[in-house]
Amino acid sequence: MSDHNWMRQSIVDILQYLPAFLAHSQQFKATNDADSKEHDAVRIDLQDVLDQFYVKSATWGLDRWEELCGISTDKTLSDSVRRSTIIAKLQNPGSVTEVFLTNLINGYIADQQGYIISYPSEYRIEVLYHGGQITDYEKLRTAISTYIPAHIGYKLVTITKTDLEYHGAGTVQCYRKNIVDMSVKYNINVDDSPRYIAGVVVHNYKLIKISGGGNRPWLNLQI
Fold it and tell me: Which residues pair with 26 in a beta bridge?
């Protein structure tokens, strides 16, 4: 619930406004406690109703906001996603920037980690997001098409990040060993037969001279 500083926040207790000796009467106290409970229920209901007048705090009132904006109601979506969709529909941006589009697309992305890569010279953008996070592809495309400039194209790109390591192993039945001189441009050619796999390891050596001082000779190292 949103803060309503203008309204009472503490629990209603009618007895605090009456003479203290009245609380000693069990019947009078029980009656006023019941009244206090009802007054407090009304206070909470009023605050809840007020919350529905603002998209950022609305809950059960989101249905009315979606109806107002012409958005189909999908209660399988979280309230935060529904609010983002409504806000995107209501606002009228002066210009459609990458920041605006990023906020727009994340209204349809569960982890809200989507981002935009722009290619101005090619008049296109890419929308990147983690796999399995799109809540509704159709609504995402509709939202992008609504706000993106007509001359800009877009592409949805799924990305997957992982820390897994893959290891492979095999048995070598035959091989050919080539010894080559030091080179960073060495090429190895094989035919098109799938029976052969070729590779090359290049070792670069650098000569370092270290002076020992006095009559010590130079020390040559290869690394």
Answer: none
How far is CA 186 from each of CA 112, 193, 197, 200, rounded to the nearest angstrom?
47, 21, 16, 8
Mean pLDDT score of the chain, rounded to an integer?
77
Letter string b/e over residues 101-135, b meaning 16 or more CB atoms within 10 A of that residue's CB: bebbbbbbbbebebebeeeeeeeebebbbeeeebb
Residue 51, token pair as written in the block? 């919350």
What does the alpha-carbon distance between residue 52 and residue 48 come to, in Å, rounded to a whole number?
7
Specify the residue for token string 């981002």: 115
When pLDDT is cut at 50, 70 and 90, the band that residue 220 belongs to is very low
What pTM, to 2 d.p., does this model score?
0.42
Q: CA-CA distance, 133 to 78, in Å (whole number)?
A: 13
Over residues 160-167, mean pLDDT: 68
> For 168-206, what is each residue's pLDDT tens digit?
666 666 767 766 555 556 566 655 555 555 555 554 545
